[in-house]
Design goal:
By secondary structure, the chain is an alpha+beta fold. The chain has 64 helices and 40 strands.
Amino acid sequence: MWIPTEHEKYGVVIASFRGTVPYGLSLEIGDTVQILEKCDGWYRGFALKNPNIKGIFPSSYVHLKNACVKNKGQFEMVIPTEDSVITEMTSTLRDWGTMWKQLYVRNEGDLFHRLWHIMNEILDLRRQVLVGHLTHDRMKDVKRHITARLDWGNEQLGLDLVPRKEYAMVDPEDISITELYRLMEHRHRKKDTPVQASSHHLFVQMKSLMCSNLGEELEVIFSLFDSKENRPISERFFLRLNRNGLPKAPDKPERQCSLFVDLGSSELRRDIYITVHIIRIGRMGAGEKKNACSVQYRRPFGCAVLSIADLLTGETKDDLILKVYMCNTESEWYQIHENIIKKLNARYNLTGSNAGLAVSLQLLHGDIEQIRREYSSVFSHGVSITRKLGFSNIIMPGEMRNDLYITIERGEFEKGGKSVARNVEVTMFIVESSGQTLKDFISFGSGEPPASEYHSFVLYHNNSPRWSELLKLPIPVDKFRGAHIRFEFRHCSTKEKGEKKLFGFSFVPLMQEDGRTLPDGTHELIVHKCEENTNLQDTTRYLKLPFSKGILLGNNNQAMKATKESFWITSFLCSTKLTQNGDMLDLLKWRTHPDKITGCLSKLKEIDGSEIVKFLQDTLDTLFGILDENSQKYGSKVFDSLVHIINLLQDSKFHHFKPVMDTYIESHFAGALAYRDLIKVLKWYVDRITEAERQEHIQEVLKAQEYIFKYIVQSRRLFSLATGGQNEEEFRRCIQELLMSVRFFLSQESKGSGALSQSQAVFLSSFPAVYSELLKLFDVREVANLVQDTLGSLPTIVHVDDALQAVKLQCIGKTVESQLYTNPDSRYILLPVVLHHLHMHLQEQKDLIMCARILSNVFCLIKKNSSEKSVLEEIDVIVASLLDILLRTILEITSRPQPSSSTMRLQFQDVTGEFVACLLSLLRQMTDRHYQQLLDSFNTKEELRDFLLQIFTVFRILIRPEMFPKDWTVMRLVANNVIITTVLYLSDALRKNFLNENFDYKIWDSYFYLAVIFINQLCLQLEMFTPSKKKKVLEKYGDMRVTMGCEIFSMWQNLGEHKLHFIPALIGPFLEVTLIPQPDLRNVMIPIFHDMMDWEQRRSGNFKQVEAKLIDKLDSLMSEGKGDETYRELFNSILLKKIERETWRESGVSLIATVTRLMERLLDYRDCMKMGEVDGKKIGCTVSLLNFYKTELNKEEMYIRYIHKLYDLHLKAQNFTEAAYTLLLYDELLEWSDRPLREFLTYPMQTEWQRKEHLHLAIIQNFDRGKCWENGIILCRKIAEQYESYYDYRNLSKMRMMEASLYDKIMDQQRLEPEFFRVGFYGKKFPFFLRNKEFVCRGHDYERLEAFQQRMLNEFPHAIAMQHANQPDETIFQAEAQYLQIYAVTPIPDSQEVLQREGVPDNIKSFYKVNHIWKFRYDRPFHKGTKDKENEFKSLWVERTSLYLVQSLPGISRWFEVEKREVVEMSPLENATEVLENKNQQLKTLISQCQTRQMQNINPLTMCLNGVIDAAVNGGVSRYQEAFFVKEYILSHPEDGEKIARLRELMLEQAQILEFGLAVHEKFVPQDMRPLHKKLVDQFFVMKSSLGIQEFSACIQASPVHFPNGSPRVCRNSAPASMSPDGTRVIPRRSPLSYPAVNRYSSSSLSSQASAEPSPSTSSLSSTHSASPNVTSSAPSSARASPLLSDKHKHSRENSCLSPRERPCSAIYPTPVEPSQRLLFNHIGDGALPRSDPNLSAPEKAVNPTPSSWSLDSGKEAKNMSDGGKLISPPVPPRPTQTASPARHTTSVSPSPAGRSPLKGSMQSFTPSPVEYHSPGLISNSPVLSGSYSSGISSLSRCSTSETSGFENQVNEQSVAPGSGSGHSGSEELVRKESKTPPPYSVYERTLRRPVPLPHSLSIPVTAEPPALPPKPLAARSGHLENGTRRTDPGPRPRPLPRKVSQL
C-alpha cells in the first residue's frame, strides 16, 4: 500500500533507471527527485527537472538527503537543507553543463577548455566542502575560491550576477532592496575594478654566476637602490657562491632566494634599481700564483644593475642574465652602481671574464599574509625575508624591532712609514659592558646567519678607502646599555705569509649616559694607534678615551694634533623600545624633575610621532599622573597634550595605534577623577568658540572629542565603581551643560569669516562617534533626545556654506549608521530630524550621493514584511515626508546628460541606482493602509493627477534596460514585482477618479504606455531563460506579463466610449504585446483588436485606421523577430470568432485575411533573412513582399523601403542587372519636377529632379556593371534630354561620352549568355511565396544544370529532388515536405527583327537572345504506339511545353513565377524536320565562321562535317528515308505530304551545304588533316548516292562566292517548289545538331550527348543523371537503304560539273534578290545572309529554266514550277517605314504555312531559340557537340529538348493558285506584319497573358520612332532592281567579329 512519506522527501539518483516497469519513471544518474509516497522498496515521485511526469522507481537507486518541506500537502515544496554554497554549485554546474557543450558546437575552443578546468576545480572544492573535515578558516577560504570561480563562469557565459552575503546566495525577499542593491553593486564593482594593492613585494632567486675563469668563492649582495635620493632603501640579501658560481648551500633554499617586502606604491617607479655587488674571496691580485699567499681577502669583483621598471609589466622574469661590470679604478668601487645607472661608461667596463649573473625575478602584490596564502609553495620551501630600511609606511602596534644599521663609510689613514699606501681591512666587533664580545649579532644580510665579527673588503694600496658597506646589528634591548662597537684596522701584506698587521682601532658606545641611544647620522670616529700585538680584550684601557671627533672638539683640543687619522660610520636606529630623543626621556622621568613638567608638556608637540607611539602607554600614564598630581596647575596643559596625542593617531601612519589607545582606556586607564577636569576644559573651549578669533586649536580639540568622551566616560565609570555612583546628577548636569554649549555654538551662523563654520564642521564630523560612549552611561531615549536636540539646533538655511552643509549631511549619515539608530525606540525619535535634513537637501538637489547613501541605510534597517507597529509608523513618516521628493529627484537625475568622465559616470549610475532602490524599498514596505492614506492625502484631483503621472513616468524610467547592468536580473525582477504591485493599487484610483466626465487622456495614455513597456521587457521574457531559471522565476513571482495583460484588458473594458481616444494610437503597442509568445497573454490581448474595430466602425463606418496601423506596425515588429506561425493562426481564429455576429462581418473578415496574408509573407521574409549569404530565397521573398505592399495594400512608403532592401540584396549578391531593374521601380514613381522631397532612407533632402537624376545615374552604373549596356543607353538618352533642356552642356557632354562608352562596350567586351532553369517548389513546407508554384530562373554566368541543381539543394537542404519532369500530383502538393523539380528550358525571344536582320553583329544579337524573355520552352521525347526496334524514329514524338512568366527576365529578380503553361505534341515527321533544320543551320554557321576567318581553329567544322557525313554513311538520314519516304507511311499519312516533301528538301539542302562545306574545308584544312578530309569526301559521295544524287561535281573546290555573314541562303516555299532564280530560300529552322550544343539536353540514347550533360526529361536531379528508359530517342546504326529519287530530279547531276557561271542558281551559288523581296533568315546566331554571284546578270538568272536541285516536287505543285520557261517572282511586300538601309530593313515574319505546323488547330508557331552558336575556341570542348561530331546516327536524332521552328506569329493561309513563281506558290499570298526593332527592354503585351506594364522610365512613346540600332559603318545599299537591270555591286562588307565565349 502506498503511503505518503514523512522524512524521505528528497534524493539524488545514484544509478540510472530505465523505467521499464509499469508506471516507471525514467531517471538518469545525478537527477534530483522529490518523493511523494513509498511502498515496499519503491518510491513514487518526480524528477525536479520535469515535475509534470510522475512515476515509481526503486528506493535503492536513490540517495536520500535532508530537506525541509514548505506548504505540506498537494503543493508542497522541498528545499534541501545543505549548505547554500553547495546548492548553488550544483544548480550552476548543471546549467553550465548544457552551455559548455554548446561552446564546443560553436567552436569556441578557448572558453570551452577554460570552463572545463574551472568546472573540475569547482567539483574538487565541492568534495572538500561535502566531506566536512575543514577548519573554519579553511572552509571560509574554500568558499571564497568557489564563489570567485562561479562568478567568473557566470560572467563568461553571460549569466546573471548572483548577490551573496558571506559567500552564500541571498534571497531578495529576506533583505531590503537597498541592501540587495548594495550587494549587487559590491559584486559588480569587484568584478569591474580590481582593488589596487597598496603593498608590493619583490621575489629574487639567484641561479648562478656564469664566468669563464672563476676559481674562487664569491659573495653576492642584492639590495634596492633609490637613484633619485642616492641611497639604499632596503636591507641586503647576502648569498655565497662556490668556485663554480653556484649557490654554496644548495640544500637550503632560503639561502638562494629572498622576498624584498613592504614596498609601497610610491617605490614602484623607474628610478628604483636592483643592485648586485659581487665580492671574491681569495688572493689580493686575481692573477697571483697560488702559493704566493695563503691568506684570503675579500676583494671587489663586479657589479650588476637592473631597473625595477622592467618588472612593472607584471611578467615573471625567469633566467634573466645581468651583465657584470667592474670599475676601472678600485677607489671608485663604492659608487660603481651609481656610475652604471648614470651610464658613465668611462668609469667602468665589463669584467675581464665577461661574467653574467642568472637570476629570476617576480613582483608580487598584496598583503604579506595574502602572498603567503597564494604562493604557499615559495614559503613552504623556504625564502629569506629582506625588509625595508627602517619602519614600513604603517607601523603595527605589536611590531617588535630593535635594529641598529651601521654603514662602514670610509677612512683616512697615514702611510705609517711605508713607501706605498696600505691595504686596509676593517674588523668589527660588538662588545658588551663586561668586555665580552657579543656572539652572532652582526648580520651581513638576509639569507646568511648573523656572525660574531665582520671583515671588510680590502682595497689595494689605498690610504683613503671607501667601503659603503651596510650591516644590521639586531642587538637585544637589554644588551644595549653599556655595549660598544670596536673597529680594528689592519694592513694586509702581500709579501711573505700575507700577515694582517694591526695598526689602529676606533670604538663607539651604543647608548649615552642619559639613556639616549647613539643618534642617527654620520659619525667621525678617532683612529687610536696601537701596536701590532696590542691586546684590546681589556676594554677598560680604551673606553675612557674620546671616541668621536665631535666630542673631542668640545672637550680636549690639545689632543687634536695626534688624531690625523679618522674613520667614518653612519648609524640608523630602528627600534620600538629605545629612543634617541632627550625630551621624551625628560617627560617620562617627570617625577625626577618636577620643575621641568611645564617645559616637557610644551615640548611634547615637537617630538616625532613615531617616538610618541613607541611609548604610547607610558606617555598617557605620565599625562594622567601629572593631572592627578596638580589638576589646577597642569589641567589645560595635560588636556592639550592629550588632544595632540589623540590627533596624532588620526595620521594614516599611526592609524593602527588606535586599538592600542582603546586597550589602554579599557584596561590600563586609572584616572577616576579625570572626567571633571576634561569636561571643564572641554566646555571652556566650546564656550570660547564663538568669541575666539583663531580657531585652529579649538578645532584640534573638537577633532579629538571622540577619545575625550571615551576618557570622560571611562573615568566616570571608574569613579562610580569606586564610590558607588556618587555625584550622578552632577555628572548628568555637566554633560547637559556641555551639550547646551555645543547647541548654542552650532546654532550660530557664520558672519563674514568662515572660521566658525569650519569649527562647526569639525565638531559635526566627529560628533556621531560620541553616541556609543554616551550610551554606556545614559538610556537610549535620553541619548536619542540629546542627539535630536543637538542636530536640531543646526541652522536650516541651506545656502549658507556648502562645505558645512556637506559635513552636516555626513553627520546625519553617520548618525543613521550608528548603533544608536538601530534601536527602534531611538530611531523613531531621530527619524524626523533625519528626514527633515534629507528633504531640505533633496529639494535643493545638493549632495545627492550622500543623500542616497543615508536613505539606503534608513531602508536597510526596515526589513521586508516587517509588520511591527513601529515600522509601519516609520513608513507613514517616510511616505509623508519623502515619497514625492524622491520621485522628483529620480526624474531630475535621470533627465540630466550623463557625465563624460568615467569616474563621474559611475558615481552618477550609483546615485541613480541607490535612489531607485530606496523608492522600491519604500513602495514594497507600503501596505493597503499606506496607499489609502497616500491617495486620501491629495486635496484636489489635479494633485492626484500630477502624482500619478509622476510615478508612472518614474516606473517607465525604472524599466529602461540601462537602469541596471544587463546581468542584474535578480534586481530587475524585484523591481518589476514592486512596480506591478503598485500599479495594481493605483489603477483603482485611476478608475475611480478619471473616468466618465473626469476622463483624462494623458494619465490613461501614460498608464497604458507603462503597462506595454512593462510587458515587453527583456528580463520578463521567460521563453529565453534556461528551464531551471524559468522555474525559479515562476515559483517566486509567477508570469508578471500575464498579470499586467489582464490588468490592461480590465482597464480597457472600463473605458467605454473613451476607447475612441486611443484608436489608432494604442494599436501598435497592443500589437507588440500580443506578439510575445505567451499563450495566456495573447488570448487576453487579441480580443482588444476586435473591440477597436467595433468602436472605429461605430465612429466612422469603417476601420481603415485600424487596418493601416496594424499593417504598419506588423512590418516593423515582425522584422525585429517578434511573432510566429502560432500567433498568425491564433490572431486569425480569435478575431474571426469574435466578429461572427457583427453586422460588419464581411469587411472584418477581409481585414483579418489581409493582415493574416501579410503575416505569412513577413514571417517568410524574416525566416529567409536569418540565412547567412544572399540567395534566391531571400530575394524571392523580398519580391513577394514588395509586390504585396504595392498591389494589395497600396503602401507606397513600405513599397519603396522594400525596393531598397531588395536593391541592397542584389548588390550584395552582385546581381547588378537585377539591382538596376529594382531601382527602376522607385525611379518610375518620380517625375522630372522641382517638388521638394524630405530626407528618406539614405537620401538627403532634395528636389524630385535631383533624386531622379541620382537614381538614373545609379541605375546606369548597375546596368553597366551587369553588362546590360543597351538598357543603359536608353537611360543615358533620357537624362541627356533633361540636361539639354536645362542647357547643362557640361553634364550633357559627360552623358554623351558615357553613352558612347556603352556602345563601345557592346562591340568590344565579352558577354556570356546565361542558361534558364524551370524550378518547381512542391509541398507545404516551403515558404508561402514558393509553395506549390513553378518559376523560371536565370542562371549565373557559366552555371550549368548540375551546378544550379546543387545550389538549389544547398539553399533548401531539406528538399527532396524529384527524378522526373512530369507534373506532380495532388499528394505531392499537400505533403508535409519539400520537393524540388528542376530542368533547363530554352528562352524564346519576343521579337525576331534584330535577330533576323542581315549584318547585325553577334555582339548585338546576343543581347536580344536572352533579354526581355517572357516565354520558355521545354521538349520531352516519347514513343507513341508500338516502338520499332529497327527504326525508333517512326514512333518518336516530342511533347513541347511552353511556359509564360508573369514578368520578363531579367527583371527585379533572377526568377519569376510561371503564369501559364501550354503543352503540344510534335509528330515524328515534324521532329525529324526540325532536327535537320537545326543541323543545317549549325553547318551554315560554322562554314560562314570559317570563311570569314572568325575561327582560329578549323577543328569544330571538321568535327561537325565528320559527324554528319559519317553518321549518314552509317545510317544517318537514311533512317528518316526508311521511316517517312516509304509507301506505307505516305499512304497511311496523306496529310503529311508537304512535310515529307519538306524533309526531302532539307536532306538535299544538307547535301549541298556539305558540298560547299567540304570545299571551304579543303581550302583551310592543315596538311596533317588532309587524309581525314579525303575520307570525308569519299564518304560524302556515298552519302549522296544514298540520297539518290547520282552525279555531282567531280572536283569540289572552294566557291568564289562567300557567305556574307554566316550560312547559305535558301528560300523555302509553303509547298515543295524548284529553286527560284531570283531569290533565296528562307530557312526558319535550325540544323539538327545545334540544339544539343545549346541546351545540353538529350536522352540517354542520344549517344555521347547523354554522358556529357544530362537530360532534364530523364533525370532532372538524379545524382547519376542517367536517362530514363521511357524517354529515349535514338536512331539505329544499321539500315542503309534509301528510296531513289525520281528521274525528274536527275538533272541535278548534270549541273554538278558546270562552272560557277554556267551553274544554275542554287543555295551554294544563289543570285541576288531585290532587297524588297528578301525574306529574313530564321536563325538567331548569325544574321547575315549568303550572297549570290555578283557577276551573273539578273536576266540570266531569271531565264534559267533548270529547276534548282534544292526543291523536290511532290504532288501537283510540281506542275507549277515554271511557266514558259520563266520563273515568276513573288509580289514585293510593303517596306517598313524606317530610315535605315532598305537592304537591311526586312520584315520580321517569314511564311510558316499551316500545313507544316507541328501544332494542331490554330496554334501559334514557335520562335527560334536565342542560344545556338558557340565560340570557335570552346566549341570543340562542348560535350554535346563532340557527341554530334563522333556519334554517328545520333547526330541526326531528335534531342530531348528541341530548338524552335518558325516564328511566333499568326499565319494566314491562302489557296494555292497556278501560275505562281517557283519561289512562292501563286495561290499563296504571304501575309507580313510590319514590326519595329524592339527597344532593349520593351515588354510586349500578349493575348495569352495579362499585360505587365513596362517601367515608365524605360518605355518608348507610341508615336516615337523606335531607337535605332548602333550605327553601321556600311553605306546604304541600292533600293530596287528595276526592269531587269543589273544591281550595282555593294561596297565591301566588314568582316564579322569573331565569336565570343559569352555566346556559348
